[in-house]
Amino acid sequence: MPIPLFNSVASWFLKKRIHQIELFMKYPNEVQQELLHGLLSSAAKTELGKKHDFESIKNYNDFKNRLSVVEYEDIVDQIERCRKGEQNIFWNTPIKWFAKSSGTSNAKSKFIPISIDSLEDCHYKAGKDMLSIYYNNNENAQILAGKCLRLGGSSELYQNTNSYFGDLSAIIIDNLPFWAELGSTPSQKVSMMSEWETKMEAIIEETLGEKVTSLAGVPSWMLVLLQNVIQKTKKTNITEVWPMIEVYFHGGVSFHPYRQQFEMMFKGTDLNFFEIYNASEGFFGMQDRNESNELLLMLDYGIFYEFIPINQIDRSDESVIIPLSEVELNKNYALVITTNAGLWRYKIGDTLKFTSLSPYRVQITGRIKNHINVFGEELMIENAEVALSKAAREMNLNIVDYTACPIFMETNVKGGHQWLIEFTHPPNDKGRFVELLDHYLKAENSDYEAKRYKDMTLSLPKLEIAKKNLFYNWMAQKNKLGGQHKVPRLSNKRDFTEELLIMNHSSL
Fold first, then answer.
1. Which residue, of 50, 152, 156, 262, is most buried by count of CB atoms within 10 Å of its CB?
2. What is the mean pLDDT of residues 437-457?
3. In a domain, 143, yes or no
4. Is the pTM of this model over 0.90?
């Protein structure tokens, strides 16, 4: 089939899906309730379903009263049994893939179950929806006339006795339908390479001759790849290498610190930025409007959503947990999910807020354990990203990476926050940057502002400028280059920062 005809036919099929998306946008709570009953019915004959008598659950309140909210540590024994070959424990179809995830704040590996249902009805469905929404918003789109340059994790699939584990990206690529593989670059062989720097060279070698029309991957690692491409080709702009690129699909980390650098790499072009919200546990949301920082919550991916108000996260009383129909605008919630891979009322650790209730749109605000609240300041990643972005833009700076932690109170010494920031070029006036950062943090967070009042509780932030590639080298030491691996942004502890400070002061 000629490319233009294929492009036309494919775009027609993609646009048909828009009507289904409009349906759950119009009837969100009905779709979610029906989905919950479907999940309960599917798992009724499993070990977990029999234990909690899923067949007798008639409504949401029954479900809520029957099952407790869990974290990974609560279900690790069930998952380990499944990894060793036992089936029908928490889901009715065989589970042989496990996404290995360490998160940002815990070195201990988690093995998140992936079913064929979650691959087909969540992850791959989301991939098609990204294209559907993009084509619906951009009628002259031509991304199907070329290939998507995908950047997954530095990973391969490892075989356990009766199962496989690795990065989610490795599982997805290993099971990709043929139509998706045909439209992607680099090849599966290169995408599955485990050694990050060798893989980087192979990706560049394989993709330079391809007609790339879109990019997909985590911003921090995609930026490294594009910088290497420019260095190798000696071009000044990525569009000199791939002139047909029109969109970058990004997720995994906040785009705030990286946006300016991407804009510089595509200077003079109208590159579209399209944000997605996915994790090892599932695909949750995506940008459904051009130039928007809100994500449409996807309600028909086999995931039932619940929410815990963040100010009540430590309460044992489950009455504080609410379904989608009871959320409020601009309140921070911890996300709880029930999925078609056998996670039941699972707290994934993300926090978000609703920016719209009709349809349901969200913004990611951070991680439950990835914030600073030592002095009652409740500093969330969302606040940090906005403040850093504004301060950097005002001084014409680009931030490569950063982390922040508390400075604990001592006798006659007030507490504060220490920021370790890597810039492409350090600020000429370090003090001015600190003042701007402090100013914008106050503007974004009233709790922080209150604690900073007349320096009564918090003193002015302290800034340590990181040397070039500090964070990259630190991640390399931990064998966490590529993929979903992230630099911990905010922490109530000093562990990460102290390690980085030692490296920063080292002459090696």
1. 152
2. 87
3. yes
4. no
* Token code pair at residue 227: 């910088």
Residue 235 lies in a domain: yes
What is the rounded distance in angstroms from the CA atom of residue 48 to the CA atom of residue 56? 13
Question: 303 with 279: CB under 8 angstroms?
Answer: no
Cβ–Cβ < 8 Å for 258, 320: no
DSSP 117-170: HHIIIIIHHHHHHHHHHHHHH-TT--GGGSEEEEE-BS---EE-SS-EEE-HHH
Same domain? For 339 and 251 the reply is no
Residues of the chain with pLDDT > 90, as a percent, come to 58
Cis peptide before 359 (omega within 30 of 0): yes
Cα distance between residue 503 and residue 495, in whole Å: 13
Written as six digits, the tokens of 312 are 């009540």
Same domain, 125 and 241: yes
Contact in structure between 370 and 94 (CB atoms under 8 Å): no
Q: What backbone phi and psi angles, to 5 degrees, belong to 490?
A: -125, 140
CB 217 within 8 A of CB 185: no
User: What confidence tier does 447 reach under pLDDT thresholds 50, 70, 90?
Assistant: confident
Mean pLDDT lowest among 35-44, 101-110, 123-132, 165-174 = 101-110
* 103 within some domain: yes
Q: Are residues 111 and 134 in the same domain?
A: no
Single-letter residue type at 151: L
Q: Does any domain span residue 477?
A: yes
**Domain of residue 468, CATH code:** 3.30.300
Structure tokens at 305: 């959503």
Number of domains in the chain: 3
pLDDT in tens, 349-393: 889 999 999 999 999 887 777 778 777 787 888 889 889 999 999
Residues 393 and 361 in one domain: no
Nearest to 108 by CA among 79, 67, 85, 68: 79
